[in-house]
Every structure is written in structure tokens, then in C-alpha cells.
Fold these 2 entries.
Entry 1:
Amino acid sequence: MSRLNYLTLIATMSMLALAVSLISTSGCKKNASEEETNEEEAEAREATPDQVTLSAEALESLRLTYARAEERELLPSLEVPAEIVAVPDRRATVGPRVAGRVVDVRVNVGDPVERGVPLVVLESDEVGRARADLIAARARAAVARRKLDRERGLLEDRITSRRAFEEAEGDQQVAEADLRAARTRLATFGVTPSEPAPRNPARVTLTSPMSGTVVMRSVHVGQWARPSETLVEVVDLDELWLQASVYEREMRFVDVDQPVQVEVRAFPGEVFRGTVAQVAGTLDERTRSIGVRVVLPNPEHRLRPGMFATARIQGNPAHEPRRLLVIPRAALQEVLGHRSVFVKVGNGTFELRRVSTGEREGELVEILDGLSPGDEVVADGSFLLKGQLLRSTLAEEE
């Protein structure tokens, strides 16, 4: 073997040895990193005790309630995002029919109003001229009526001619037509003709067309308002709609008259109830979903249009009820990133147990694993036990 070939062989073997060394080092580091992660998780689990024991005094002060895991017929449900909107027939936008300057605004957002209550007062030159024309038309009509009555009396006494009477009658008809036209013109501006005329004939008052709550005001004193603008919006909040979308593959799970449970971010943990009123007849070609409308009673006016919500449509018509192991939702707590419950194992002793959940119906939730029928869990007060568990963990670390 030549000296050159010998040196090339030595260099190649050195490079191979270096590569093997690097791979081994990397593997060791990776294994070490994984081992450290597993050790940290194990230490976290070991740091959190599996049981909480309370004294008789602490047990009495916490006032815990209990529930047994039991099998029940639970109707499967479909959960979809939704938005709360106002019912179109329970919503009114108020704006001027004639341009004018705002001189008074009598409501603010959130104010309850009754039908006919004044909202905004405007001053308009057109309204002023229309009222003046109405006053003049009334005067002409009154003169024409008196003239006609006089000509009728003279005709009966054979003092005037038939032609003079007919001319007076025609003048009276024209004057009455002008009066009706003046009233109509004023009515088109949203003004009801009144006698006597108001102190400021140029003013027009916008009133609420319905009872409800003011949800929008976009006007202030001194603003120039035009007929195309909306100044105030009033909504009847006694009943709202919930609009949701269901994908094509889930259409068979939704039908009219199904009960719906609604949750909103503003009131966590509370459930509002409604009913499916309509399922749209066509699909949205872009999203491949179908619209669902839910009627949502709102007697206390706690819900507002524009709120985002989660709708749980219950009792899917495509499924029969199933017997599932369930517990109250209040018994669930998040501990170390896992859903867990506290199981009563003795007088004042509770075991922390991880569980997996499935279907929900109202305040009940399905338990897939972690519990057996008959296990007694803490319902109301489980959050307090979680706090007790964390405090005991901190005490042990100190």
C-alpha cells in the first residue's frame, strides 16, 4: 500500500470515529433530557398528595355536599358556537324624516323606554315652513266655508245667482284640498298636526315606536341630522335569538323544538335555556354549514345582543338515550392540568382521582374512566378541597 493511500485510510477512519462519538453524545443528551422531564413530572406527582384529611371542625365549616357516581340515561348533545342577536320584529331604529339641528337628547344607552316616549328633539326649517303652510291653509279653508254658507243663504233668498253659489262651492273644495295637502306634507316629516300650533313650529320630536331598552345612541346636541341617519336604536330584550351554524355532517342531529342549553362568557357556570325554532332550508356553500335559530327568553334582560355563546343542542334525534356513568359537573376540578375529583374514602378523608369525561347534559357529565358506580364524590365544595390540597403541598415543600 502506498503512503498516500495509507494516509487517506487513516483520515477516513478518524472522521467515522468522530461522527460516532457525536451521535452517541447527542443521544445521551437527548435521553438525559427526556429522563429529566420524566423525573420532573414524577416529582410533581409525588409533591401533590393523593389524599386530603380534614378535622371535624374543618369538615363542618366547609359544608361539603356529596353525590354518587351512577348510571343514568343521558341524551347525547351537540355543542356549537353561537351569537345572540335581537329579534328583528323587536328592534327599532329611530331617525329623522327631515334634516334638522339637534336641540335635545333625552335618553342614553341602557335607558328603558316606553312606546311614545320622546327621544330626540330637532329644529328644521322645512318643518317650520310646513307648519306655516298648514296655518295658512286652515285660514283659507275657514274663509271658503263661510263664503259658501253665505252664498247658500243668499241663494235660498233668491238674492244671488246659482253661478255665484257654484263658484263659492268650488273655492271651498279647493281650500279643503289645500288643507289636506298641508297636513299630509307635515305628516311625511313625522309631525302630527295639532291645534293650536306649538310655541316653536320648527321643532319636531322623535318618539320611541316601541317599548324596550336603548342600545345605541349616535347623536349629540348641536349635531346636524339627516334622514339617512339612525340616531337611536331601541330593542325589546324580553326575547332574543341565538344564531348558530351546524356543519353538514351534523345536520341529522338537529330538529325543531329541541331544547338548547346556552352558556355565555359574561356569566360563567350559568345555563340559559331556549328552544330550536328554525333550521335553515339551504346550506352555506362556502362553509358547508346550515343555520339554526334558537328562541331565547330573557325576562331579566341579563343577556345582550352581540354576546358570543356556546349552544348545547340536546336530545339528538339520530340517537337513542344511553346509560352512562355520570356525576355533577361541580365535582370536577383541574389539578396539575388534569380533570380530577375528590372521592370520599373515610370520615374526613378524600382521595384525589383523575378522570376522563365525555357527554354532557345540563349539570351532569359523563365519566369515561376513573370512577365506578357508587363512588361518592364531593360536589359543592370540591374547589375548597382543591385549595386545601395545594396548601398542604406548599407546607410540605417548606
Note: The two ends are 72 Å apart (CA to CA).
Entry 2:
Amino acid sequence: MKILVTGAAGFIGYHLCKRLLSDGHVVVGLDNINDYYDPRLKFDRLKELGITEENASLWNKLCTSTTHKNFSFIRQDLQDRVALPELFKVNSFDQVCNLAAQAGVRYSIENPEVYIDTNVVGFLNVLECCRDHKVTKLVYASSSSVYGNSTEVPFKEEQSVDEPISMYAATKKSNELMAHTYSHLFNIETVGLRFFTVYGPWGRPDMAMFLFTDAILKGKPIKVFNEGNLSRDFTFITDIIEGVMAVISGTSTSKNAIYNIGNSKPVKLLDFVTALETELGVTALKKMMPMQDGDVHRTWADVSSLQNDFGYQPSVSVKEGIAAFVRWYKYYYVKS
């Protein structure tokens, strides 16, 4: 198939592009390479896909990979109502996987406008392009944050998600509603994936895995929020990609579907830190902090729907995942 992957320079997008290409698909990657976190990491991910920084820096110019004949990349904003429709017009995509979004729960409290521009206006533009250019299937990233501080665990797709506690979560809930509307009105198959705390090599530097590793190796204290009384459904990137690939290749039971995609084994934050200390061979200096605005106490995915419909089966333990991340971190950041 010919597939558009938005957010291709991002953590999940980069890994998905690699997997799609290895399976023989033709992939067009799109990203605006913003500076929410160090763009160097984004350019280096693209470099791994054969896109030079010089070419990736050019706006609205499709460039071809030097290492993957089926991959091309364009730097573009999702909310561009001229350029994005033109990209759809000239490429005739079979599917779209929308992973582009302004990420980060805490950042959304200080900068809500950016989240509306990218996550709502941008997503609407993607839906309109799918409608106008006869794309029959859209897979898109939602988030476990839509569950807010629900005490019903594990989280199931059918439970209420009407009480988001961050602007980021509100935009992801909006995406699900918008996708439902377009699926109903225009017969587009839409599949929303509620990601649960994804981590692994090439991961985002604003996530706990990265922040903890970086601080511990530099002898700096790590911030442990809510006195460590948090738990997360940490999910390794290869398990996530297996699930996304199954959804892209298969057919859901509903024209408009939403699935949890996680490890389904929540880990207490302090246990996660202990496992990381063991892998690094260093004891962390811990700075106990209060709960942060917008944060949730725990996440825990019920993934039975994704298992039943697509055979999803996460297999990477937290110990294995942490080891893989630390190897990459040392390769990428400590090699020099």
C-alpha cells in the first residue's frame, strides 16, 4: 500500500515508518519538526531513514530517501489548508496513519493554543483530505490520557471519558469524536489507538524513561512526583508497532473503532526507578515532589478488544525494555 505517516520524525512515527518499509509498503512521511523538544533528535531519526537534514529542513518539498527507495519525506504543517490537500492530490494514498500531534500533558496547561492548532485544526484538515481524496482508512493516535483520573481499572474502551484533566487529553477526546462523525457521514474507516506510556530507543526526551536515565547517569536528582504513588502501563515501542501494523493490515469489527494499546501490566513508579537503577548500576538521588497539575494517578489498559480483533499480544517486559533503552541512550548520547 501507499501510506501517509504524519509525525514521521517523532518517536512512534519513526519506528512505524521503518517497519512499514521493511514490509514493502510505499511510505510518505510528514512532520513539521517543531522545537517542543530538541529537533536534533528528530533530524537524526530521519537520517536513519535516509533523509538528510538539508532536505528535511525544506518546507513543503517532497524529498526522497537515499537508503529506502520506497520512502519520501515532506516538512509540512498539518493545519496548512493549501499544501496538505495538494499532497493528498498528487499521491493517492491508500491509508493514512496520523501520529502527528502536539504532545505533552504539562505543556498543554501553559500553551493550549498550540494544542488546538495542531491536534484539532490539523486533525480536521487530515479528515477533510481523506474525505476529498477518497482515502478509505484512517488510523490515528489517541491517548490513555482521555481516561483522566478514572478509578475504574483496568481502563476499558466503553467506559466514560468525559472528564479529561488536561488540554492535551481534551484534544485527543475531540479527535475521537471528529473521527466518529467523518466515519458516519463519509464512510471512512477510522481506528483510534489509545497509547499507554510508550518508551524505548529513540524515545522522547520529555518522558520519564529519558529524564530518569539522563539524570541518574549525570549524578543529578530525579523528580519523583506524588511521592512516587503513581503507576503507569509502560509499553515498549516494538509492542506498540506490532499493534499498529496489525490494525493497518487488518479490518476492525466497526467502521469507527477505538482500541487501547498498552502492556496491560501497570508498574509502580518507584519499582520502575529501581529496575532502572539495577540496569545502570547506579542508585538514583530521588527528589520527592507533589502531584503535578494535569497528571493522572495511574494508567492500566484493558487490551482484550485489540487482542480479540487483531491478535495483539505485548511481549516485552519492563526489564527487557529498560535494558534496550539504556543501550540506545549510551550509544546515542555517551558515545562521544
Note: The mean pLDDT is 93.
